[in-house]
Every structure is written in structure tokens, then in C-alpha cells.
Amino acid sequence: MANRERAGAGAVGSAGSLGLRVGQAVFSSAALLFMSVGVEFFSYTAFCFLVTIMGLVIPWSCTLVMIDVYSIFVGCPLRVPGVMAIVVVGDWVLSILSLAAASSSAAVIDVLLQFHGSQCTARLCERYQLSAMMAFLSWFLTAASSLFNLWDIASR
Amino acid sequence: MANRERAGAGAVGSAGSLGLRVGQAVFSSAALLFMSVGVEFFSYTAFCFLVTIMGLVIPWSCTLVMIDVYSIFVGCPLRVPGVMAIVVVGDWVLSILSLAAASSSAAVIDVLLQFHGSQCTARLCERYQLSAMMAFLSWFLTAASSLFNLWDIASR
């Protein structure tokens, strides 16, 4: 129990971290589905980039959900410094890539709406917009996880 | 002198920080100039966003260049915790905005090249590309500054 109390708010192995990870998995899956199901996303580089990055975020978040669940319910927290560093760097890289993917998709949607008509029907553009929004939310949660873990490493 | 030695590599008041800040000022000015001089950038939202953000990064970097020069040459380092926190948060926000601006501009350039011809002559698109590249470099240096300062605060 003493070990569990040392996990800072939001650091790997805490309930806050579990919440953030579940949110990441949900939002990145939503972004992937809105972008890819029944839509010809592959005609624009930015949309392919978004799908690729969301496809990386989903397994990463799911793995860390499992680690958090294990830490919380089995009570054997993962506090090895080397592993924590890998988690921080992974979160960091994925949050940068998510932000880049989300903002480039948003910019492309804006240009498509400007060249109205043939490039983007209303139904399609709404789905693209929803996907970009979900990607932004996923980015926000990933960045928060990364900051909490970095703070936890540095303050020890 | 003892105070000066306590500044971590890259934290406010060190020579590393001065180098990063000068780089930020140079790259963000280059991005602003490539995007705005003699080019109709205001027809695309992403390019306006890039110009706005670079217009914020330039005064911020120049202010911190002056603070670093003062700390290094006059030898009176600025190590007030409240001010350090403001610097970290400011760097953080600006680096997120720079990355979003740079990647959305890059995505728009990609779409313009795809709709070749009337939308983007070769000379124009090259300038836009150079501007986006400079913005990416400016983002990279801002993010580095932010990380160094955060690490410096947290490890004290």
C-alpha cells in the first residue's frame, strides 16, 4: 500500500491515469472510425496521416489501460524508472503526432469547404470534422498523461 | 557565481537557453517573412494562423533573449520560481500553437499542390513550403526550451 500511495495523481498506476487512458482509447477509436468507415479518406495525405497515428494511439492506450488496471486492482504498481521513461517518451511522441495529424486534418477540411461542392459533400465534411475533433481530444488526454508522468519522474 | 552554476543546461539564464531563443527568433521571423512578404497568404485560414502565431513567437523570444543576455553578461540570474513557471507555460502554449500552425500549413500546401495549377504557382508554393519548414524548426526549439525549463523547475 505504501508503494501505491507514492504514485502521483495521473502517473502510471493511479486511477487518474486509468481514466486518461480509457479516454484516449475511446477518442482515438472514434476518430479512426469516423475517418475510415465508408469514406474515401485516402485521397488526402493529411487524412491518411490521421488514420495512421490513431492506429498507433489505440494499441498504446489499450496496453497502458491493462497496466493501470493491473496496478490498481492487483496492487502491484509498475514503478520501474526505465519503464516510466519509455512511457513518458512514448506519450510525448504520440501526443506530438496526434496534434500534428489533428490540426493538419482540420486545415484540409477548411480548404475543402472553401473549394465547396465537388470536393466535399456536407455529410462527408461533417464526418471529417467529427474525426478531427476526436483526434484533438485524444491529443489533449495524451499530452496530459505525458505531463503527469514526467512530473512524477522529475519530482522523485 | 554559485547561483549561475545552478542554472541547468538550457534553463533560463544559461548559454544553451540563449542559443535556443536566438534560433527561435530567427526561424519564426523567417517563417513570417516567407509567408507574408509579397504573397496573398490571407486567402487560407491556416496561413493566417501561421502568421499570427509567428507574430506572437517573435516578441516572446526576443524578450527572453534579452533576459538571457542580462543573466549571462551582467551575472544576475533570474531564478524566481513564479517567473520560471510563467516562462514554462508560455513556451508550452506557444510550442503547441506553432506545431499546429506549421502542420496545418504543410497540409494545406499539400492539398494546393494536389489541385495543381490555378491555386498555387511553383514559386508561391516553394515559399509556402519554406515558411512551414521554418515554423517547424521554430516549434522544435520552443519545445526544447520548455522541456529544459520544466525539468529545471521539477528537479529542484
TrEMBL record, chains A, B:
<keyword id="KW-1133">Transmembrane helix</keyword>
<dbReference type="InterPro" id="IPR006702">
    <property type="entry name" value="CASP_dom"/>
</dbReference>
<dbReference type="GO" id="GO:0016020">
    <property type="term" value="C:membrane"/>
</dbReference>
<protein>
    <recommendedName>
        <fullName>CASP-like protein</fullName>
    </recommendedName>
</protein>
<dbReference type="Pfam" id="PF04535">
    <property type="entry name" value="CASP_dom"/>
</dbReference>
<keyword id="KW-0812">Transmembrane</keyword>
<feature type="transmembrane region" description="Helical">
    <location>
        <begin position="128"/>
        <end position="151"/>
    </location>
</feature>
<dbReference type="InterPro" id="IPR045009">
    <property type="entry name" value="CASPL-5"/>
</dbReference>
<comment type="similarity">
    <text>Belongs to the Casparian strip membrane proteins (CASP) family.</text>
</comment>
<dbReference type="GO" id="GO:0005886">
    <property type="term" value="C:plasma membrane"/>
</dbReference>
<feature type="transmembrane region" description="Helical">
    <location>
        <begin position="96"/>
        <end position="116"/>
    </location>
</feature>
<comment type="subunit">
    <text>Homodimer and heterodimers.</text>
</comment>
<feature type="domain" description="Casparian strip membrane protein">
    <location>
        <begin position="14"/>
        <end position="141"/>
    </location>
</feature>
<keyword id="KW-1003">Cell membrane</keyword>
<keyword id="KW-0472">Membrane</keyword>
